[in-house]
């Protein structure tokens, strides 16, 4: 009996219940992969994907197709996948409950949890764009999984490209850059864009205003990174 058939036979009760234990998963196996017999985990992840597809108010065939690909469902299971998907999105349980249970059970397997996030981003982007409601959904799931804001931004950037408000993007450094490199980038940018330099060059007032805004954004980005890395926020 296939996993999708088992999910269908268990039906709505599995998606509405706390079928997935909070106990630690069995030892061994791939740290990035769940126990293939953990039906409760699969149901919770299916529930997350189905609720996400519904977050923007519509569910498209493209989203269901991506959903099938994310879960590596064989072609012959296409109809069962569609039925499970529709069953999961109609349940009363909120997606936060699914996310919390997955996060608790697999808290020591960040690679697995990041894989779930990757799949959810693929589903969210199936229609060609990620709505604000979908982004809020993804951020809430990331929080439930115990990921930091920096980790969420890194995962987001790997699927959607850099966020213009991402402090690492503003400073032009990688998320895993050494702090010495980040500080050097900050100092270089401040030297290049400092308002005093613009004034000395005799630039128009509009350029001076833009330089003040740019310098403020650079300073704020650097301070945010220092805070996230547990460093004192002070000029250096």
Write structural notes for this entry:
- The chain is mainly α.
- It is 64% helix and 0% strand.
- The chain contains 13 helices and no strands.
- It has helices at residues 3-10, 12-16, 39-54, 61-70, 78-89, 95-105, 110-124, 132-144, 149-160, 167-171, 179-193, 195-200, 205-228.
- Helix 7 (110-124) runs antiparallel to helix 8 (132-144).
- The chain is elongated.
- It starts with a helix and ends in an 8-residue tail after the last helix.
Task: Give me a quick take on this structure.
It contains 13 helices and no strands. The protein has helices spanning 3-10, 12-16, 39-54, 61-70, 78-89, 95-105, 110-124, 132-144, 149-160, 167-171, 179-193, 195-200, 205-228.
The profile of the biggest β sheet is: none
Rounded radius of gyration (Å): 22 Å
H and E order: HHHHHHHHHHHHH
Tell me the number of strands: 0
- CATH fold naming of the largest domain: TerB-like
Continuous helix count: 13
Mean of residue pLDDT? 80
Low-pLDDT segments: none
CATH class of the largest domain: Mainly Alpha
The best one-word shape is elongated
Portion of residues within helices = 55-70%
CATH architecture of the largest domain: Orthogonal Bundle
Structure class: mainly alpha
Domain count: the total is 2
Distance between the termini: 63 Å
SS strand fraction: under 5%
């Amino acid at each position: 009996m296939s996993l999708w058939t088992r999910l269908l036979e268990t039906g709505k009760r599995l998606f509405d219940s706390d079928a997935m234990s909070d106990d630690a998963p069995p030892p061994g196996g791939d740290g990035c992969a769940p126990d293939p017999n953990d039906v409760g985990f699969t149901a919770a992840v299916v529930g997350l994907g189905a609720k996400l597809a519904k977050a923007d108010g519509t569910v498209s065939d493209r989203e269901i197709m991506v959903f099938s690909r994310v879960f590596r469902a064989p072609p012959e299971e296409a109809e069962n996948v569609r039925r499970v998907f529709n069953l999961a999105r109609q349940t009363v349980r909120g997606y936060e409950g699914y996310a919390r249970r997955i996060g608790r059970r697999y808290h020591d397997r960040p690679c697995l949890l990041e894989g779930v996030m990757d799949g959810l981003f693929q589903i969210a982007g199936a229609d060609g764009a990620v709505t604000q409601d979908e982004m809020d959904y993804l951020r809430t799931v990331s929080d439930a999984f115990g990921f930091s804001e920096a980790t969420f931004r890194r995962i987001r950037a790997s699927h959607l490209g850099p966020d213009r408000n991402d402090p690492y993007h503003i400073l032009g450094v990688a998320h895993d850059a050494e702090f010495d490199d980040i500080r050097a980038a900050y100092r270089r940018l401040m030297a290049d864009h400092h308002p005093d330099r613009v004034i000395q060059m005799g630039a128009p007032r509009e350029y001076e205003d833009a330089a003040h805004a740019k310098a403020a954004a650079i300073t704020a980005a650097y301070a945010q990174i220092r805070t996230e890395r547990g460093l004192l926020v002070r000029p250096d």
